[in-house]
Automatic annotation (TrEMBL):
PANTHER family tied to this protein: DNA-BINDING TRANSCRIPTIONAL ACTIVATOR DEVR_DOSR
Protein's recorded name: Putative LuxR-family regulator
Tagged with keyword Transcription regulation: yes
Gene3D superfamilies: 3.30.450.40, Winged helix-like DNA-binding domain superfamily/Winged helix DNA-binding domain
CDD domains documented for this protein: LuxR_C_like
Record-annotated HTH luxR-type domain positions: 261-326
GO molecular function annotations of the record: DNA binding
Short name of one Pfam family: GerE
Classification lineage: Bacteria, Bacillati, Actinomycetota, Actinomycetes, Kitasatosporales
SMART domains: HTH_LUXR
Keywords: DNA-binding, Transcription, Transcription regulation
GO BP, sorted A to Z: regulation of DNA-templated transcription
InterPro entries the UniProt entry points to: GAF-like_dom_sf, Sig_transdc_resp-reg_C-effctor, Tscrpt_reg_LuxR_C, WH-like_DNA-bd_sf
């Protein structure tokens, strides 16, 4: 039966999933585990969504070479495959505790002989961290005590694996940024890939090659966020490009793309939106006419229409409204004018 302090530790680990700094929260979670389970060392690993490589998020007690081996070499062992297919985290002591347990025996392998035992550890347990059927990381615990991780200890660790997975998942913070709506489609986009986020569908605007030009332009700025309007498949979308919170597993060039369907505000037409965007960059009517292959008279008419629709008293007031509310459909070369820094 679990003790009071074990239950309290599990509860505190669950509460740590609300912390924005996942590295610090992960370290705190390992220290909470040390209060509930016998351990002399522990490491929490996150899995890079692009490469599949494991990277340490937090660790206590392991020598540097052992931590590195647990992140890089462990996944090449048969024992790793044993770990990821079991719901109850397997332990070294399971060799003698449960002789019928399937899978290779860790004590008989090279990793234990060359990495774990020389570091002074006699027992260990490893849990696979999953979120929505995705493997997002691993947790390793080790102790100098032999046969320390019995079935009860392993069940306790299993009970906190969902919370540890929430901490280890590099996509968790990106999938639910605090300043974006909880609904809508969202993905992380890098220079070489689109990374789908848990619980989010891929934005439809990513089917437009021009949007990828905007993403490249945004990544080249030092800005934090830009809001715009964009059509895709016959629907207009409110689109937000922003930099995700940096951390293990988040590529340095990643851009978070979030979209929600919308109607063009104030009943603006697509052409009026283009004119308003160019006006917001400071272009004159003549320059706008040349860029859009229109006559200056037509541009003047568009400006009059958008002033009437928005209720703005002047061109300057209309462009200020456009920047404030993200009433923009910029070309890549215009994006830097509107990025929030």
């Amino acid at each position: 039966m679990l003790s009071h302090h074990q239950i309290a530790a599990a509860t505190r680990i669950g509460m740590l999933t609300r912390e924005p700094d996942t590295a610090s929260a992960g370290a705190a979670a390992l220290h909470e585990l040390a209060r509930a389970l016998p351990l002399d060392a522990a490491t929490l690993l996150t899995r890079d969504p692009l490469t599949g490589a494991h990277v340490q998020l937090a660790g206590i007690g392991y020598p540097a070479d052992t931590s590195q081996a647990l992140a890089v070499e462990f996944v090449t062992t048969p024992w790793y495959r044993n770990v990821v297919r079991q719901e109850l985290p397997p332990s070294i002591s399971a060799d003698t505790e449960d002789p019928e347990e399937c899978g290779p025996r860790f004590r008989h392998g090279w990793f234990y002989a060359e990495r774990v035992r020389p570091a002074g550890f006699r027992d260990g347990v490893t849990g696979a961290l999953r979120r929505r059927d995705r493997l997002v990381g691993l947790v390793h615990l080790s102790t100098q005590r032999p046969d320390a991780y019995d079935t009860e200890a392993r069940r306790l660790l299993a009970s906190v694996l969902p919370a540890l997975a929430a901490l280890a998942d590099p996509m968790a913070a990106a999938a639910a940024p605090r300043d974006l709506p909880a609904d809508g489609r969202a993905s992380l986009v890098t220079s070489g890939a689109v990374i789908d986020l848990p619980g989010r569908d891929r934005p439809r605007v990513l089917c437009d090659e021009e949007v990828h030009g905007l993403l490249g332009a945004f990544a080249g700025t030092a800005g934090h966020r830009v809001r715009l309007l964009w059509p895709a498949a016959g629907t207009w979308y409110r689109v937000v490009l922003r930099r995700p919170r940096p951390g293990p597993g988040i590529p340095a060039d990643a851009v978070l793309v979030h979209e929600t369907p919308t109607e063009p505000p104030y009943g603006l037409s697509p052409r009026e939106l283009e004119v308003l965007t160019r006006a917001a960059t400071g272009e004159t009517n003549r320059a706008i006419a040349q860029a859009l292959f229109l006559s200056p008279r037509t541009v003047h008419s568009h400006v009059e229409h958008l002033l009437r629709k928005t209720g703005a008293a002047s061109r300057a007031e209309a462009t200020a409204l456009a920047v404030r509310d993200g009433l923009l459909r910029p070309a890549p070369e215009q994006l830097a004018f509107f990025v929030e820094r």
